[in-house]
Write a structure and sequence with these properties.
The protein has 2 domains: 32 residues; 220 residues, no CATH class. 15% of the residues lie in helices and 28% in strands. A 4-stranded mixed sheet has the order 5-2-1-8, with no helix packed on it.
């Protein structure tokens, strides 16, 4: 007869085999869920100024501050296996020597959008947020040191994750270049990207081509633009050049 240990081992082995088979079936089944993402991304304003681009910068250099409008419907990216989506916008611009050096690409804004079946996710976002009159903000606020952040809130009734309406949105990160100069660079564009993070299975990234029931992203890229000439600090209000990330850091330090 088998010992108790052998019986437990057999049961555990059977359980893991079934769990793996179920997880594999769930991961593969997402290809049956149709995806039709669409987005409109437009440049609102761009300014180039010389100064400290971040509150922790140690030197003055040229940096670009970009504001944009985003109207996106990514709701079809959410299915039974979607945990959250990491969404980000990049700015691509030409290098000083385009013939020998490839274009540069930097992230100017990002957000984590959880699925509606994760109602206590601390980063639950609703766009637009009626409490902030359309300005996107997370559903929690940082408190002073020593205090825990409150638990996340579920999406309100009728809200759907993946619907974004951002008007004149400030960036999270300023744009700087390794050369320290970015004024009057040409052929720049803004592009929307995402990374779908499932409960089980492989990560999927932005797709622009159609694969079966998964349609590529329609839109999601701005028209080409040029960075303007350097603007003097006296002609720009410091409040206008703040980023969302910088404001968050300021609140944490103030607390």
């Amino acid at each position: 007869m088998h010992s108790t240990f052998n019986r437990i081992q057999n049961v555990f082995g059977y359980f893991t085999s079934v769990a793996f088979a179920v997880a594999a079936a769930i991961a593969i089944s997402v290809i049956l869920s149709p995806q039709t993402p669409s987005a409109s991304l437009e440049l609102q304003n761009v300014r180039v100024i010389k100064g400290r681009p971040h509150y922790y910068s140690t030197k003055r250099e040229e940096y670009a501050h970009i504001t944009f409008d985003l109207d996106a419907d990514l709701s079809t990216l959410f299915n039974w296996n979607t945990k959250q989506i990491f969404l980000y916008i990049t700015a691509t611009y030409a290098s000083p020597s385009p013939a020998t050096v490839p274009p540069s690409e930097v992230v100017i804004w990002d957000a984590i959008i959880p699925a509606d079946n994760a109602p206590l996710h601390p980063n639950t976002w609703v766009h637009p947020d009626p409490k902030t009159k359309g300005k996107a903000k997370p559903k929690f606020k940082a408190k002073s040191k020593g205090k825990k952040l409150p638990a996340g809130k579920p999406y309100p009734a009728g809200a759907q994750p993946g619907i974004l309406r951002l008007d004149n949105q400030k960036p999270k990160y300023q744009i700087t270049d390794a050369s320290g100069k970015i004024a009057e660079r040409g052929n720049a564009t803004l592009t929307l990207h995402w990374n779908v993070q499932p409960y089980v299975g492989l990560l999927t990234w932005t797709n622009t081509a159609t694969y079966g029931r998964w349609s590529g992203l329609k839109g999601g890229r701005s028209k080409a633009f040029d960075f303007p000439a350097l603007l003097s600090a006296e002609n720009v209000k410091k409040e206008d050049l703040k980023t969302d990330k910088g404001a968050e850091a300021h609140r944490l330090m103030a607390g």
